[in-house]
Amino acid sequence: MTDLLQEYWRAYLWTDGTRLTGLAVTMWMLVLSTGIGFALAVPLAIARVSPRRWLSLPVHLYTYVFRGTPLYVQLLLIYSGIYGLQIVRETELLNLFFRVGFNCVILAFVLNTCAYTTEILAGAIRSVSHGAVEAGRAYGMSDAVLYRRIILPDAFRRSIPALSNEVIFMLHGTSVAFAATVPDLLKIARDANADTFRSFEAFGFAGLLYLLATFFLVWLFRKAEQRWLRHVQPHHAA
């Protein structure tokens, strides 16, 4: 284990000397995909709960497809399948985008986590107190103001526990990025194993880093819950 770490520990953590690798790439993919996915999920969640079928139905179909198929399959379709289409190869911008593995990985991760986050936020929006909404309407708030001041802030707070689970699942899901030759944590572990044939050490150290990253995310979301969900924490008698 010591020899393997002496040779590969930098690659496991952040660089192989020429590019970002390992844990740094894994966390960068996680931040990018969950950040973009959350931003897209907010308007989609609003559309998802809309009584207008022409708004809610397309969103429902999108979330159904991406939550009903494996992330690995989605990545392969985007990385290998879409790039194999003639129209993609003949369109300069599409060709430039889909020929880069990292772009395909981020696109697949964004679409996947956005689908889950959309349903999480839609459920939280539906659970917002009807009385609070009616009180806002009594004050003359428009739908846009209601969402900005009452519905979305309350929904965001309610969804923190579920969002924390989705971010952790997405962290674990980033391990499929090796299929697109992205030098993430698992790709470095596979390379170390191929070079040293020390599978337990190579994959064990990667598993330890995933575990530490998970603990860090759990700690962050626990702090967020303590701050924004303080009003629903149980109060113990002295």
UniProtKB/TrEMBL annotation:
Primary location group: membrane
Q: Which CDD domains match?
A: TM_PBP2
**Membrane-crossing residue ranges in chain numbering:** 20-47, 59-84, 96-116, 162-182, 202-221
Key word Magnesium present: no
One Gene Ontology BP term is: amino acid transport
Entry superkingdom: Bacteria
Task: Name one matching Pfam family.
Answer: BPD_transp_1
Q: Which proteins does it associate with, and in what oligomeric form?
A: The HisPMQJ complex is composed of two ATP-binding proteins (HisP), two transmembrane proteins (HisM and HisQ) and a solute-binding protein (HisJ). The HisPMQ-ArgT complex is composed of two ATP-binding proteins (HisP), two transmembrane proteins (HisM and HisQ) and a solute-binding protein (ArgT).
Q: What is this protein called?
A: Histidine/lysine/arginine/ornithine transport system permease protein HisM
Upper lineage ranks? Answer: Bacteria, Pseudomonadati, Pseudomonadota, Betaproteobacteria, Burkholderiales
